[in-house]
Amino acid sequence: MIEADQLTRRFGARTAVDALTFTVPRAQVVGFLGPNGAGKSTTLKMLAGFLPPSAGTARIGGKDVVEDGLEARRLIGYMPESYPVHPEMRVDEFLSFRAEIKGVRRDRKKAVARAMELADVADVSRRLVGELSKGYKQRVGLADAVVASPPLLILDEPTEGLDPNQILRFREVIRALGKEHTVFLSTHILSEVEAVCSHVIIIHQGRIATTGSLDAVRAALRGADRVVSLALSVKDPARADWAGDPAAAAHAALAEVPGCAVAEATYADGLARFELTVPAEGDAVERAVAACVRAGLGVREVAPKAHSLEDVFHALTKRDAKDEAPAKDAPAAKAEAPS
Q: For labelling alongside 277, which of 74, 128, 155, 197 has CA 20 to 30 A away?
């Protein structure tokens, strides 16, 4: 559905998007992730035809976004991060107006009703858009994106301003839309991506950091190390040598194991839970357990801990402190997302 080949966008001397190459298959819900300033919104604007690329190409359903821009845009329902609305129009009037602009001639009322139902705004159909809360305005934006039933939905931070219950409802909507549409979703909420997406693309500093299925990107991080949750019983009055600070005794025992990085998670009611990062190969886990037993600590639980998408994201987008400081000649932040 989407084919990007060396897609690049420059603003003066600054390269916001640097030679991105990726594909998005049809009928998939794909998460597009990256830290602030990574180039996500700029990429989405190029795909949606709002911003021309400086180099490279992008195709939507085989249509080049520059050479066949009108045909490419007919295939897209685009919801930008800051959704523009007509505040003086009622919700159903606004969506009918948008449907007409998008070429919906037959069954326009039916298309508008379907869009309002999907976006959960039917209950405010006769309200003025300008009177709605930010969350409802976001949902009106989603209704606008789906009103012409395009094969591709490009959604930029669509849950911005929604409360937790509305976010859960949004996830249900995305799952339903994913059965009939390709959904390309940019968001900062990683749990949201894990809940609704089958594939992810992570970019950092304008470049691809990783791409693939959720299981594949987690497995790539898992190949570097293992994370193990270890629960220890450390309450033993007979052990006077560490009764005053049992958690310290657990740390000391675990520190004896080469290659074992220890982080204390919790300590309460005589039970300490630790996270251990150990090499993927070897017997570090077994050696850690043996060290704890020798120290007189009761091993209550040893369990592997799966890497989350958050772990993957942080591992791929870590920056040195010097990278966090803006360059003296860097353009203003607004340069990435011109109106």
A: 197
User: Are 79 and 50 in contact, with CB atoms under 8 Å apart?
Assistant: no
| pTM higher than the cut 0.85 | no
Q: Please, are residues 161 and 81 in contact by the beta-carbon 8 Å criterion?
A: no
CA distance 189 to 200: 13
Closest to 46 measured CA to CA, from 13, 83, 80: 80
How far apart are the C-alpha atoms of 7 and 230, rounded to whole Å? 46
β-sheet bridge partners, residue 186:
32, 156
Those residues with Cβ within 8 angstroms of residue 28's Cβ, 6 or more apart along the chain or in another chain: 1, 178, 182, 183, 198, 199
Q: Which residues of 43-72 are buried (b: 16+ CB within 10 A; e: fewer)?
A: bbbbbbbbbebeebbbbbbebebeebeeeb
Alpha-carbon distance values, 120 to 38, 46, 152, 154, 305 (Å): 31, 29, 20, 19, 37
Domains and CATH numbers, the chain: 2-221 (3.40.50.300), 224-306 (3.30.70.260)
pLDDT along the chain (339 residues), means of 10: 96 95 93 91 94 96 95 94 87 96 92 92 94 88 93 90 81 86 90 89 92 82 61 56 60 80 69 74 82 80 75 72 40 36
Q: Tokens 């991080």 appear where?
A: 221
